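RECORD TYPE: inverse folding
INPUT: structure tokens
STRUCTURE:
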């Protein structure tokens, strides 16, 4: 992981733009003789240079604006607290805690906190008057604005980044289809889908193509889920005596990979539809031959059912893809919603991802993110105390290194720590030798800055060690514009980086978070929270007099907390050492199903808010009991508990409710419309529950097979 270099993650064009934004103030400062001002503006531009390298245009622009404001305000506060060491340490601790807590929202939110905290730490090194502090903050904000303006110019297209992200997702799905048990494939598709979720759920799709891309993203999640279920069932069948069909299974996986790769190509260029049809027909024939060999084999029948479900989603994605290259209207892949659903107003407080509500829900020791925020704050307070009270020169690099190294998970913390340490030492040594050979004129420094700044930005995602190498040189050269002690600067930075990095690693070892032990419990907690949330909402439909907004709000808050904990647990466990195995595919797919159930419950609550006055629907009581029982049973299974709750026949209940809805259509149209809406959302919930049941069934059966084999 430390030495891994991913060429596909190289960022060239945007790195050139960010480099211009950083170097331009230095050039103007040298030309005009205002070196210090140029360095200050370049410092502000540097903070935003890396932010402009990822995400879509709208998210990138919003994040850069918030980072620019955060950096300017934090720099001013840092300069003002410099004369008061303990106040400075306390402020850095608070900012660090907020940075850790912002992870509950997403990675971009964390970056805002991270860059703001770093700016605060740097400015605590300088003794400035209040007026000078404000001027310094203003100069850094000017640098930030420069980067923002430059980032807008070359990227005016609205959906370019989304299309590239979708290509990456479908290519990752193709690799996953070929080998769904490979840990690198699992991590890659999980990472891509999480990144896409942040982008597509934050941006409201505008325009025909953007809406199609959003649907393609939704289909990708469904395809991943169906791939997992089918692959697990197929693998289990082979392990239980179907070894002679191993070659057939490999052929099926190969063709699925070809189909998904063709979809990735079709996002930007028209692929051959006939070729795709031939691939589908070939897999159809392989599956049919499998079933014909053993027509009474239940496992093979299940494989056929799962493949049909997967094929439906693949074909829908194909249709959406082709519609981007045609002028005709898009063929909708999902059921058309009734008109009354389209008219629902947006309620900010019941959104699936409301940032403020998410933060509030995680302000508890039960939250994984909250505990990480506390750990980060403790590390930063210790590092800041060393910085403020030790005799080390320029020791503000100690807390900066600590906050850059410490992450919620094991792998990222230790790989970043080692990579940063090696990159810093090599960078400090390289620039010291280089400036000992070359005359450190402003022209020389500017040329070096252009090269290393571009290298740092271009390699940020591809390899963190190389990024640290170039970034170390960039910072030392930047300081050389106002301080010519190059060798001393290199030594100080190396020593401080070692201290800060080692401090972060030691604290992580003393307070580790091995999440693989908690995954089943976290997902069970997630399902329980959704169960309570669902019951509260449906009770308001059954008897409007029981509608209790405060109780529903509390259930929604607990559901958000459980969601954050479950996602953080799985994401961190994926980055733990391989000696701690767990079923990576099943857990991630169950998270996806739980997320879809949450969306359905939120839709039900939003409908209540739009229609607060409505007739009671007591006929929903059996459906409520059935769905609640299914969720309770799933939760108990995940905890390894036995449940004695008998779940009613949900299909029979749905048929009875459909009959009542038909009668209400002529008797009470309002009640019929409400019942229709509840049934629509309930069917989606039940479908996701059935998918989770199948995942757990396959997992348990595979475990039993493994236990028998080992016995």
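DESIGNED SEQUENCE:
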């Amino acid at each position: 992981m430390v030495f891994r270099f991913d060429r596909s993650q190289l960022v060239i064009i945007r790195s050139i733009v960010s480099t211009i934004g950083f170097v331009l103030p230095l050039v103007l400062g040298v030309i005009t003789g205002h070196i210090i001002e140029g360095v200050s503006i370049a410092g502000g531009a540097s903070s935003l240079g890396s932010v402009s390298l990822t995400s879509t245009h709208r998210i990138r622009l919003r994040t850069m604006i918030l980072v620019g404001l955060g950096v300017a305000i934090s720099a001013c506060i840092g300069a003002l607290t410099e004369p008061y060491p303990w106040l400075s340490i306390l402020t850095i601790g608070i900012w660090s805690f907020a940075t850790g807590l912002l992870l509950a929202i997403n990675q971009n939110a964390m970056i805002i906190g991270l860059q703001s905290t770093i700016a605060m730490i740097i400015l605590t090194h300088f003794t400035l008057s209040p007026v000078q502090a404000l001027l310094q903050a203003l100069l850094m904000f000017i640098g930030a604005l420069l980067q923002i303006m430059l980032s807008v110019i070359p990227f005016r297209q609205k959906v370019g980044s989304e299309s590239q992200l979708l290509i990456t997702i479908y290519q990752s799905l193709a690799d996953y289809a070929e080998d769904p048990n490979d840990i690198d494939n699992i991590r890659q598709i999980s990472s891509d889908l999480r990144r896409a979720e942040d982008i597509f759920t934050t941006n409201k799709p505008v325009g025909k193509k953007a809406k199609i891309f959003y649907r393609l993203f939704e289909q990708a999640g469904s395809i991943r889920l169906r791939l997992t279920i089918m692959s697990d069932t197929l693998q289990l069948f082979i392990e239980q005596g179907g070894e002679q069909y191993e070659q057939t299974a490999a052929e099926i996986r190969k063709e699925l990979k070809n189909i998904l790769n063709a979809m990735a190509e079709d996002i930007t260029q028209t692929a051959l539809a006939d070729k795709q049809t031939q691939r589908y027909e070939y897999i159809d024939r392989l599956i049919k031959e499998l079933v014909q060999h053993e027509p009474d084999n239940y496992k093979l029948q299940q494989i056929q059912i799962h493949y049909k479900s997967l094929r439906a989603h693949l074909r829908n994605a194909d249709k959406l893809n082709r519609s981007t290259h045609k002028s005709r209207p898009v063929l909708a892949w999902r059921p058309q919603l009734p008109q009354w659903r389209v008219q629902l107003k947006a309620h900010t407080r019941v959104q699936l991802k409301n940032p403020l509500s998410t933060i509030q829900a995680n302000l508890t020791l039960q939250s994984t993110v909250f505990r990480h925020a506390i750990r980060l704050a403790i590390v930063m307070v210790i590092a800041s105390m060393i910085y403020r009270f030790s005799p080390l020169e320029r020791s503000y690099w100690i807390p900066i290194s600590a906050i850059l190294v410490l992450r919620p998970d094991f792998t990222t913390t230790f790989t970043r720590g080692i990579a940063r340490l090696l990159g810093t030492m090599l960078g400090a040594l390289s620039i010291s030798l280089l400036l000992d050979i070359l005359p450190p004129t402003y022209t020389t420094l500017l040329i070096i800055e252009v090269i290393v700044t571009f290298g740092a930005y271009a390699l940020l995602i591809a390899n963190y060690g190389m990024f640290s190498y170039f970034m170390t040189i960039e910072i030392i050269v930047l300081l050389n514009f106002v301080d010519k002690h190059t060798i001393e600067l290199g030594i100080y930075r190396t020593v401080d980086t070692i201290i800060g990095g080692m401090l972060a690693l030691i604290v992580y070892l003393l307070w580790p978070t091995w999440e693989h032990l908690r995954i089943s419990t976290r997902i069970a907690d997630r399902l329980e929270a959704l169960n309570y949330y669902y019951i509260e909402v449906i009770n308001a439909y059954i008897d409007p007099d029981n509608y209790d907004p405060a109780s529903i709000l509390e259930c929604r808050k607990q559901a958000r907390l459980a969601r954050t904990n479950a996602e953080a647990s799985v994401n961190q466990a994926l980055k733990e050492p391989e000696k701690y195995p767990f079923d990576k595919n099943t857990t991630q797919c169950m998270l996806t199903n739980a997320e879809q159930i949450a969306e359905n419950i939120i839709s039900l609550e939003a409908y209540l808010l739009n229609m607060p006055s409505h007739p009671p629907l007591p006929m929903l009581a059996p459906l409520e009991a059935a769905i609640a029982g299914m969720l309770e049973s799933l939760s108990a299974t995940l905890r390894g508990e036995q449940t004695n709750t008998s779940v009613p026949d949900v299909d029979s209940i749905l048929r009875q409710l459909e009959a009542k809805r038909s009668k209400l259509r002529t008797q009470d149209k309002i009640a019929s419309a409400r019942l229709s809406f509840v049934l629509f959302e309930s069917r989606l919930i039940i479908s996701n529950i059935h998918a989770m049941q199948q995942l757990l069934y396959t997992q348990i059966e595979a475990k039993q097979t493994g236990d028998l084999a080992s016995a």
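NOTES: Residues 575 and 650 are 39 Å apart (CA to CA).
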